[in-house]
Amino acid sequence: MAQARAGRLLAVIGDEDTCTGFLLGGIGEINSKRQSNFFVVKKDTPVSEIEDAFRQFTTRDDVAIILINQHIGQEIRHVLDAYDQTIPSVLEIPSKEHPYDPSKDSILRRAKGMFSAEDFR
User: Is 47 helix (H, G, I), strand (E, B) or coil?
Assistant: First the structure.
């Protein structure tokens, strides 16, 4: 399966097409507590449920990376901005309907703030 290392999973919070694509790619897992490593967000999914899924993934010991569609990340931006742990790492990804916009990615902005152009010379 798609694991960062033995026992560590990739989790996905995304729209139906994104989750289906990753599941077809083999990332689907259910742990011993019967918790899956993906959360499908539909148009009528309450923001509180998205926040709960994110918080649940960030507290699991078996998750190393969380992928979230950027347009869904916008809905819980306050939660993403408050998250400051390195593991699980959070990556915002595009969806079929919504292209990636680097200016909206708070995690990328934080990473850019850690380095200057001088660091890469």
Answer: helix
C-alpha to C-alpha distance for 69 and 26, rounded to whole angstroms: 18
CA end-to-end distance (rounded Å), the chain: 38
Token look-up 């960030």 returns 58
Share of the chain above pLDDT 70, in %: 83
Give the pair of three-digit tokens for residue 13.
């919070």
Q: Each residue of 65-99: pLDDT tens digit?
A: 999 999 999 999 999 989 989 899 999 999 888 87
Give the pTM: 0.80
What does the alpha-carbon distance between residue 38 and residue 103 come to, in Å, rounded to a whole number?
26
